[in-house]
Amino acid sequence: MGRKCRDCMTRVPYATLIATVMCCVGVGVFCGTMYRGTTLTLRLFEDVFKLHIKWVEPVQLTFMVVGAGMGGLGLMILFVGCLSTGDTRNKVYRTWRGRVGGRISCAIFMGITYLLSLAWLLMFAALIIVTLFYTLAWFQCQHIPQNECIEYNQFSFLFPAGTPEEDKRVCPGERKLFCKDYVNNAEIMFILASVSAFLVILSLVHYLMCLAANYAHIKDQEKFMDLQEIQFLHESEMSTLPKDRF
Fold first, then answer.
1. Which residues pair with 170 in a beta bridge?
2. What is the pLDDT of residues 97-107, one digit of tens each?
3. What are the tens digits of pLDDT across the range 120-156?
4. Nearest-5° angle of CA 42, CA 48, CA 53?
5. Distance (Å, rounded) from C-alpha 16 to C-alpha 206?
6. How far is Cα 190 from Cα 205, in angstroms, rounded to an integer?
7. pTM summary value
8. Deepest in the core among 6, 65, 66, 155, taking most CB within 10 A?
9. What angle do CA 29, 31, 35 make, to 5 degrees?
10. Confidence band (pLDDT; 50, 70, 90) for 117?
11. Crossing angle for the helix pair 14-47 and 184-240, nearest 10 degrees?
């Protein structure tokens, strides 16, 4: 029983498993916080600035698709890692076609992971900008006197053309709704989303290292199989030689 347990433990790709856990946790937190954050942002624009935004629901659906896709990608890379670890590698990649297929699959996943890393870096940069906007709004809520309006005319580019000037300010009657109900909660959501996006980026970098190592292992497996074949032929020739020669 102990030997079987040790054999199973040697077949586990721990590095890829750690990256998969990081990816799943990061994507899960990202999807949840972004869904909540975009919902608060939509309600903020509707209730405070009297703007109706129609593209929020498709964006929320995109977050769900991204979460499912990243989860599936993580499981597939984990499967590739299992095939490239321990005795499993010796059995799966014994033939020439198996080794070529394994190297091609690793190369494809490396390309996909690299492109996803760039996409998540752009997403992380966008989240940092959004978080800075909410942090600025929170500072304004804290430092502008309660009896004065918070002006957002300097952010006119965020409002559709023709928006009335009075809809670009938050006056005392809407301060509690704007500051405590929306800005404070949305800022927390986007901070968590930024942290989770950074965690996903780390997991993708970890995946790239694991896939590169798996590619090298599969490539070295071909050399190992050639050495085994040479050793077998050498032992066969030695066994056929007459003993009196020695």
1. 150
2. 777 788 888 88
3. 999 999 999 999 989 988 998 888 887 888 887 777 7
4. 30
5. 8
6. 23
7. 0.81
8. 66
9. 120
10. very high
11. 160
Both tokens of residue 218?
């599969």
Residues 204-229 pLDDT 10s: 999 999 888 888 777 765 665 555 55
Provide the residue count of the chain.
246
Locate 236 and state its tokens: 């066969």
Distance CA 149, CA 128 (A): 26
Distance CA 35, CA 140 (A): 25
Residue with tokens 């890379």: 77
Rounded to 5°, the CA angle 121-125-127 comes to 115
In the block, residue with structure tokens 């929170």: 138
Joined tokens for residue 183 = 């800005």
Give the separation between CA 200 and CA 209, rounded to whole angstroms.
Answer: 14
Residue 138 CA, distance from chain mean position: 29
Residues 6 or more apart whose Cβ sits within 8 Å of residue 116: 70, 73, 204
Contacts 24+ apart (CB under 8 A), 127-130: 127/190, 127/193, 127/194, 127/197, 128/194, 130/190
